[in-house]
Amino acid sequence: MSEATEATDVEATPPPSPQPPHRMDPTGAELHAVNEQLRARGPAVPVTLPGEVEAVAVTGHEELRDFLADPRVAKDACHFAALREGRVPEGWPLTAIATVDGMTTADGEAHRRLRGLLSRAFTPLRVERLRPRIEELVSGLLVRLPQVAAKDGTVDLRQHFAYPLPMSVICELLGVDSELRDRLHALSRVLVSTTPRPQQVLAANRETAAILAHVVESRRKAPGDDLTSALIAVREEDGDRLSESELTGTLLQLLVAGHGTTLNLIVNAVRALCAHPDQLALVRAGSASWLDVVDETLRYDGPVGFFPFRYPTEGLSVGGTYIEAGIPVLAGYSAAGRDPRTHGPDAGRFDVTRQRDPRRRERHLSFGHGPHFCIGAPLARLEATIALRELFGRHPGLELAVADEELAPVPSFISNGRQSLPVRLGRA
């Protein structure tokens, strides 16, 4: 073959076609396998959301950290081009999270104003004052665990321990009556699910709004020593600092984030420790702390898979992928937690001593980064630390009652958890 023929053949070869966007699985199944596939395509990947909505998922640790702190990135849904232009279907499962009026969807001065109203309730000192109450709740739940166990000794730890603890704490903090808690939990599961039908989403939105309006009216009539009463006082003293929709939106955000993520954190930590008894032995030997367990779980199997949404206010490049202004972007927290470029070739290994090794310590991003760093992070850490310490202290022989792979995931690519957690408590 002549050189001329070779040149012609090379020029005639068409360039490789770009890969189609990854279609997000709304069931959240095989989350970490999906994360590996996405990271293999790059640190920022075009994806298709339910309803055929175009988006981008950022899965690289370094890229996500920089993106979260980029001043050219907004959270207000007014920047969501497809929503603004009517290209998002009615009853879309992510509409409530994207459009709720509150701190997590505010930018700039509005965000600073709302965060300032809440920050005093979540200072490390204020959170530490909650320790005795959290310990009391944990103790009461642990006393009841054997009483609700089946005849074969198994008990659903999610239902009877991991769920009621953070739900009780956040509801007491907000002044929500106990009889409303189970219903609000069921509704919040719909709001963070990515599988419900449009009519389910619309009904859940209406009912949640009605319940929260009832909570606000109840606290107006009978104020207490709770955050809702304090916010109502601010609202009535100076309505310019907090609108009515911001008040109810803030309650919704605190309620959903304040219990759902901590619930998943406790469940995932128990699963990891049961699957890695050598790591549990290190904690018991004093080579690592329960806080190390919490932080390693947040990195290794954090409570949030992909969190919606952020929107570039101008076109920008993330990890070599160009993102147009107004495209919704998912923060891939669970994927970033196992990014080997940041956390090393053993990023997929659960290692509680990782948090104590200064040579490879890199903070996880499970609580976010930048101006929207999770305001409830100290409370989540405190609740999970106390819960795990007391649970394994009282039931040192605790083990999963089924294989971990048999545990059904929560049907969502937002919430990274399991629908149940059957365990055998063993001898107390």
UniProtKB/TrEMBL annotation:
Region spans: Disordered: 1-27, 338-361
InterPro entries: Cyt_P450, Cyt_P450_B, Cyt_P450_CS, Cyt_P450_sf
Biased composition (Basic and acidic residues): 338-360
Annotated keywords: Heme, Iron, Metal-binding, Monooxygenase, Oxidoreductase
Family label: Belongs to the cytochrome P450 family.
Protein's name in the database: Cytochrome P450
High-level lineage: Bacteria, Bacillati, Actinomycetota, Actinomycetes, Kitasatosporales
